[in-house]
């Protein structure tokens, strides 16, 4: 009787917990060189953006923080769009790796054999990736903010220009951060869906990297088709593309008169509200998550 009780307690203790799975997935990422290389490249991209802004502002009195502090910081805030871009590339790579490598190396059979459920494993990976995304977002903002401060010090010799900023200016900056956060969540789910669908590290990474490239280039193609056919239906189709809608969020929140339009945004006649864009983004998110869950749960693991 005592032996039976001991075995029962051991079985309960050996059963994998969700927090333990999440910690394990984070450990996998932190110990893999891809995470560090991709993260470093992402941060280097943000440093490069600040350097380009500095080079364009040097010798341009109209953009000097001494003469036009609000204009200078608005220009710096607009550079925050690259936090979303660089962070997105980082997340695509680590998401495709974390999920695709289970199929690539066949370790998913070992994990499932230890009593972990398929969906439990999937959501543990997604949770770990969301934690990594949040951490990367904080680090990226700090790196970009430090670069912006350095730019101000080089051009003005002090940070007095910050005192000219008002609540609406900081609200403008928050639009870019909110857009980045939404984009990061969608990017993780999209890359996860591609990796689960293809059951391959190579397919997952390739498909995820190509998604936004094709998505964004489609705006140009649809615009050209609309110009040749004189049919606005092709312009309206642009508003249902994931990448362009993510690009257009900030201008929809702040108003196109307050922000330079990002590349590859829907080129449409008339204004579209942020609510419309968010509904489309939410639709993609739910659909992609459903794809990941369905194929993860329904497919058998190949021997």
Automatic annotation (TrEMBL):
**The keyword Transmembrane helix appears for this protein:** yes
- Please list every transmembrane segment annotated in the UniProt record, as residue ranges: 34-59, 79-100, 121-154, 174-197, 209-226, 277-297
What stretch or stretches form a coiled coil here? none
Membrane in keyword set: yes
The record's section on Pfam families has: ABC2_membrane_4
Instruction: Cite the entry's keywords alphabetically.
Output: Membrane, Transmembrane, Transmembrane helix
* Record-given protein name: ABC-type transport system involved in multi-copper enzyme maturation permease subunit
């Amino acid at each position: 009787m005592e032996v039976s009780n001991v075995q029962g307690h051991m079985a309960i203790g050996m059963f994998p917990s969700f927090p333990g799975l999440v910690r394990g997935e984070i450990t996998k990422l932190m110990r893999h060189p891809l995470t560090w290389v991709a993260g470093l490249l992402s941060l280097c991209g943000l440093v490069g953006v600040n350097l380009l802004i500095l080079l364009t502002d040097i010798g341009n009195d109209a953009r000097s923080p001494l003469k036009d502090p609000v204009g200078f910081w608005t220009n710096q805030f607009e550079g925050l769009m690259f936090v979303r871009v660089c962070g997105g590339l980082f997340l695509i790579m680590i998401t495709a790796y974390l999920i695709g490598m289970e199929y690539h190396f066949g370790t998913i059979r070992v994990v499932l054999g230890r009593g972990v459920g398929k969906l439990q494993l999937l959501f543990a990976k997604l949770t770990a990736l969301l934690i990594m995304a949040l951490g990367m977002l904080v680090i990226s903002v700090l790196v970009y903010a430090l670069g912006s401060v350095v730019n101000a010090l080089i051009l003005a010799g002090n940070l007095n220009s910050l005192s000219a900023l008002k609540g609406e200016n900081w609200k403008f900056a928050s639009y870019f951060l909110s857009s980045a956060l939404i984009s990061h969540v969608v990017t993780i789910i999209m890359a996860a869906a591609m990796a689960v669908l293809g059951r391959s590290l190579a397919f997952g990474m390739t498909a995820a990297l190509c998604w936004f490239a094709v998505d964004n280039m489609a705006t140009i193609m649809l615009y050209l088709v609309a110009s040749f056919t004189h049919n606005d239906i092709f312009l309206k189709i642009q508003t249902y593309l994931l990448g362009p809608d993510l690009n257009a969020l900030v201008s929809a929140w702040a108003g196109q008169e307050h922000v330079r339009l990002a590349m590859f945004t829907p080129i449409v006649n008339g204004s579209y509200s942020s609510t419309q864009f968010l509904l489309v983004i939410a639709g993609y998110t739910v659909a992609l998550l459903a794809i990941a869950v369905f194929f993860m749960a329904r497919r058998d693991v190949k021997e």
